[in-house]
Amino acid sequence: SVASIVGALNNQTGVNGIAKAVKLMIIRIVPNGDERDKDIAMAIKYAINNGASIINCSFAKKYSEHYEFVEEAIQEAENKNVLIVHASGNLGTNNDEIPYYPTGILQNGLVASNWINVGASCSVDDKNLVAFFSNYGSKSVDIFAPGYDIRICALNNEYNISSGTSNAAPVVCGVAAVIR
């Protein structure tokens, strides 16, 4: 579903992805449970080593036991000019007060220059623009992108509607791919 938001080709009946001429590398790090820091770091490094220029991280978690692994991978991506786009989380909380990991914040207190944290917006630009479920934060969330009632590809040649910051992050990835 996330990949379809980035690069699905419009067949006049389904999903029209944002970046038409994009190459996608699908890496699944969460089979049926929580993301482990080692697995996140290894996935980022794998993507970098196999030519990725933009990495979508459609996951967020409340704790990080070994953030140093992830930080090392983020810095490796930064050194190789690889953009990392991360979903802010779906609890409707302030990430400035209650962080959701990974954060992109390095041990020196600076945010990695290749890091974008994305919240989900709705389709109407009013007081309810930020989706009710989306995490937010004036310091920790960089941008909001459409993430409510997004049409996606689903299993068995089906289409579906989905909401979440995991849908907003690939919107930003698609735009970044078009720009890049």
The fraction of residues assigned to DSSP E strands is 15-25%
The N- and C-terminal alpha carbons lie at a distance of 22 Å
* Inertia-based shape: globular
The helix fraction, in percent, is 25-40%
Rg over C-alpha atoms, rounded to the nearest angstrom: 16 Å
Low-confidence stretches: none
Query: Main beta sheet, described?
Result: 4 strands, parallel
Structural class determined from secondary elements = alpha/beta
Strand and helix order:
HHEHEEEEEH
| Order of the strands making up the biggest sheet | 1-2-3-4
Tally of helical segments: 4
- Average pLDDT works out at 92
Question: How many strand units?
Answer: 6
Seen as an oligomer or otherwise, the chain set is single chain
List keywords for this structure.
two-stranded antiparallel ribbon, 4 helices, globular, alpha/beta, 4-stranded parallel beta sheet, 180 residues
Could you please describe the fold and organization of this structure?
- With 180 residues, the chain is of the alpha/beta class.
- The protein has 4 helices and 6 strands, in the order H-H-E-H-E-E-E-E-E-H.
- It has helices at residues 2-7, 37-49, 67-79, 165-179; strands at residues 54-57, 83-87, 115-121, 143-146, 150-154, 158-162.
- A 4-stranded parallel beta sheet has the order 1-2-3-4, with helices on both faces. Strands 5-6 form a two-stranded antiparallel ribbon.
- Helix 2 (37-49) runs parallel beside helix 3.
- The longest helix has 15 residues, at 165-179.
